[in-house]
Amino acid sequence: MNELVKVYGTGDTAVRALDRVSVTFGAGEFTAIMGPSGSGKSTLMHCAAGLDTVSSGTVAIGSTQITGMSDKALTRLRRERVGFVFQSFNLLPTLTAAQNIRLPLELAGRRADRQWYDTVIDVLGIRSRLEHFPAQLSGGQQQRVACARALLPRPDVIFADEPTGNLDSRSGAEVLGFLRDSVRELGQTVVMVTHDPNAASYADRVVLLADGRLAGDLPDPTADGVLDALRRLSEPAPTRRG
Amino acid sequence: MLKTTLAGLRAHTLRLLATALAIVLGVGFIAGTLIFNDTIKAAMYDEYARTARNVDVSITLPDSAQARAPQAGSPQAMELPLSTLDNVRRVPGVALADGRMHETLPLLNKKGKLVGNDGKPGIALSAGTVPALRPYDVTKGRVPAGVTEAALDADTAAHTGYAVGDTLTVLDTKQVRHTVTLVGIVSFGDSKQYAGEAVVILTQDAMARLAGATGYSQVVAKAAPGQDQWLLTRKVRAALPEVRAVAGAQYRDNLANDAINQLSQFTEVLLIFAIIACVVSAFVIYNTFNILIVQRMRDMALLRCVGASRGQLFGSVLLESVAVGLAGGVLGIGLGALLGYGLFRGLGAVDESLPSHAVVLTPTPIVVALLVGVVVTAASALIPAVRATRVPPLAALQVAPLATASPGRRRVLRIAAAVLVAAAGTALTVAGSRTSGDAQTATLAVVAGGLVNFLAVLIASPLFVGPLTAALGWLPGRLFGTPARLAAANARRNPGRTAATTAALMIGVGLMSAATVAITTVRTTANDQLNTHYPIDYMLRSSDPDHGSGVPTEVARRLRDRPELGTVAEIRLGQVTLDGTRLDVGSVDPSGQALLTGAAMPVVAGSTAHLGRGSIILFTSAPDAKGKKVGDTVTLSTGDGRGGRFTVAALVSGESQFGVALLAWSDFATLYPASTDDTVLVKAAPGVSPASSQAAVESVTDDYPVISVASLAEWRSEINQSVDSLIAAVAALLGIAVVIALIGIMNTLSLSVFERTRESAMIRALGLTRGQLRATLLIEALLMGVVGAIVGLSFGLLYGWATTRVMFTGFAAEVTVPVGQLLGYLAIAAVAAVAAAVLPARRAARASIVSAMAET
Q1: Test mutation, A42, A44, A74, A75, chain B, max B CBs within 10 A
Q2: Residue A241 covered by a domain
Q3: Contact A75 B489 (CB under 8 A)
Q4: Which of A51, A80, A92 is nearest residue B850 as measured by Cβ atoms?
């Protein structure tokens, strides 16, 4: 995305949530977006996924520019080329796990590739839970169903918004491990928003945001490295000697 | 706590107004009916002001004397003798007195046809000799002075084109034509007592000569100055004990009340429908409050956390409902005033005799409306309020709303309750259907059973609404794919909510279809009865039966001369005392006996084939038929001393148009030597076209303007027409209940949309287009509407059938199911339900995904 600006409100009350952010997420890469609260990381993700409109600048997925697309075209794009994993799982309570997983494909009017479906189900270990309703599943199980839902259509990119926010550490680690594996072994592209340095350490790359601006880019991060970078961000303007 | 409630009311004003809308309609209906009633009463009181002008005492024949008078043949017994007037004048304190004569008088228009109102001839009033006591004003010309002079009411003069100086033709009681000169036009002012009727004013002598008046229908008196009218009335009573004297004020009241009586029945029927509308509103309110409580569970729990007691929460919800009820009541009064006045004006447009009047608003409808609004709303909110007190304080700390799955124990209880209630209802229904007693008790039992069973359906509906929705959702699921499947899943998600929402619609549609089945069956039965009881083409009757003139005998003779006509049957009627009971006895001439007896009369015992001299056929509906056997003898006597003993030849069942006993023609002629025909039945000769047979009949009847010719084809279409308008009226009245039910669907859906904001945003993020999201909600509404309509229709069909079956025992009623009409109701319910979902669906689709997801 290029020179992205997102302004909420007008005049004096206007808030510049994103201020000329340009960033590229590599295909087949697991990128984490990090930053303190209010840094604009969620807004960045919403704009990148075509959920929100931008005030100026452009967003492209692959070679498709999505800024300026109609709602209908955006919807079709989300259906076919974007997957989502949310913090609060967001499964439809009225549908079984299996129905939830197939929902995006059904909306697109496509059939699931049987082999791929089996692979995804088995990798996530939710075969025995397919006929259960979300209310009958634990948080970790629900999030794995949500991952399966995101993976099944083989989207160009999966956006994960704080996927471990509502999970205990063990379930969280499982989900993160799975997201990493899907990138390494299945060639999936994943962009994850998180404020947990531990979660970010699963990624191939961490993009740091502060006050709506790009504030850092760490390849092959570790939990400690991310923590350091974050700490530096929250300090007053660093004074460098030399 | 009060502050919290008030703040909540302010915050949710719009939503609560939507809730109030349901009660506004219900209350408006009730208030409208009451206001209509008050207005029409006031109008009626004003209307009779002129008739009672200057009247301090009104003297008429007592009711008992009128009842004693024979119905036909001697109308003079129903009138005050001419001497009454002199007797009244002699009472001290009477300043002026006048006698009023009132008779029917057929008036012919310029083309020689009867000037009438629905085939009934006009009336003649005596001109009166005391100007102050005349019930009319002369607007043109003068009051008639001689026997060849007459005045005419302004309306009739206007539409017949008669003007002062013209010659009028009237028929006397023997139907002989007479001409009189029009000398004046009169007006009854604002009073519409004679609206729609042709009123001819004649002198008293002319009344006697032309209209056959032999006495007064009323004598009116004006008191001397200083004389109290109540005191004078008592004096008149003392002087003339055989008459009924009422004071002028009372007379005016009585006149108005008589006119209102008929309308009271109309308002009673309206009130029943208004109550149905309120019951439906109660369902809608109950449901809305239930949903509101679930949605505010966290707020409630928070209040409990900070120390609100259960009682306080209960009070808070109840207070909220009272506020909604009060608002609904106030708005309902406004709507009621509009409705009441609209109804009054609408009825006035249809029925010319209704006077005009400003809308009357008495305290009663206001108090009733407020009371009904508050009580219905608060009562509907009781269960939701109790539910609110059960919210555990811990619920405030949980992220996801509590699951609303109903526990198994409740389910078992529900099934048990439904089965018990259904058993009671079915027992009542079966008892009603099997009873051999009178139809009215049986019908009541079946209707009561139906109501109890409907309650069972309502109790059980949360259990079957889910599967039914799923089954119905299958087809749209195939057709419209994912949105439809999501809709079906949503409609099933909360069976209690869907059940309560559809229940309102079930009531409306159920009653509508039951009424339609019943009314359509009445139509078929009526048509069948016409065909079997009158295997004829034309029926001739006098349109002025009050004079006992009937159809002159030469009419039948002349009809028989026409080759186009096959059978011409004369029917005569008389009143006799049979073994001490008064009843109508009929007879048909031998040539037409086959028309009347035969297939048309279900024979219980004996034979109707040969009704010879000295025998009688008794209908089982005759008061005297109980315990009589074929071969018994009965004693029969007429009013003027003739009589004889007759042997019962047959007992027949069913209703008869021509008396409840039949005599041989020759016997009847002996009993009533001067009788004329009451009815002449005509059947066209074989192979004659309806047009030429009608022309043949009319060639004879043209000489007798008073005789009305009913062709059976016309009659049938008249019955069908009145049945259709009855169905339309019932549908319109129940339509209000259906509209309220639709408001319920709209409320439920908007609350569901609100509840599912996050969920909707999520599926939108997953790739559901706006249109598809809209479709999801529209289909959900469609499913609810169709489920409610189908359950209502099935129930209405079942009970419409059961009720009419017992209502017409002995009539061999063919229960008719108007399939097209019922399917029409289904379609209307479906379309209306979808229409109700348009606004909520738009709102759901408009929400932006990101902000919707941010909401918790």
Answers
A1: A75
A2: no
A3: no
A4: A51
